Automatic annotation (TrEMBL):
Span list, region Disordered: 95-129
Species lineage: Eukaryota, Viridiplantae, Streptophyta, Embryophyta, Tracheophyta
Keyword Cytoplasm assigned: no
GO-annotated molecular function: chromatin binding; DNA binding; protein heterodimerization activity
Pfam families named in the record: CENP-S (PF15630)
Protein name as catalogued: Centromere protein S
UniProt feature coiled coil, ranges: none
Compositionally biased tracts (Polar residues): 120-129
């Protein structure tokens, strides 16, 4: 059950998200010499927030299904499967980020997992009675 403090924090987050969305929509309209009614801007803000909520729920479920506690880039790409253009953009962004990551860090991450397994297997000590 959600506490009053949690609900207050959720309301604050929702309001800030909507204000940011409204600001972006107004800036884009201005940059393109367009006028957008307040009703349309409010609808766009609500839709964006609902989309973000659903995305967060999907990411949580994908991570849980994979046995993880946190979402990763693959979960984000999978969540975008309904929007092919977005999924392609996300894959491209992911590949660019992977390419920019130094090779030594990638190897170190993999090595650390192996080291963790070794530590687990070698950390068991049999103590005789």
């Amino acid at each position: 059950m959600e506490t009053e403090e949690d609900q207050s924090l959720a309301d604050l987050l929702r309001d800030r998200f909507r204000l940011s969305t409204i600001s972006i929509a107004e800036d884009e309209a201005k940059a393109n010499n367009m006028e957008v009614s307040e009703t349309v801007v409010a609808c766009v803000a609500d839709l964006a927030f609902k989309y973000a909520e659903q995305l967060a729920k999907d990411l949580e479920l994908f991570a849980q299904h994979a046995g993880r506690k946190s979402a990763n880039m693959e979960d984000v790409i999978l969540a975008a499967h309904r929007n092919e253009h977005l999924a392609v953009s996300l894959r491209s962004c992911s590949n660019e980020l992977k390419a920019k990551e130094p090779q030594s860090e990638r190897k170190r991450k993999k090595a650390s997992k192996k080291e963790d397994k070794l530590r687990v297997s070698t950390s068991v000590v049999d103590i005789p009675d």
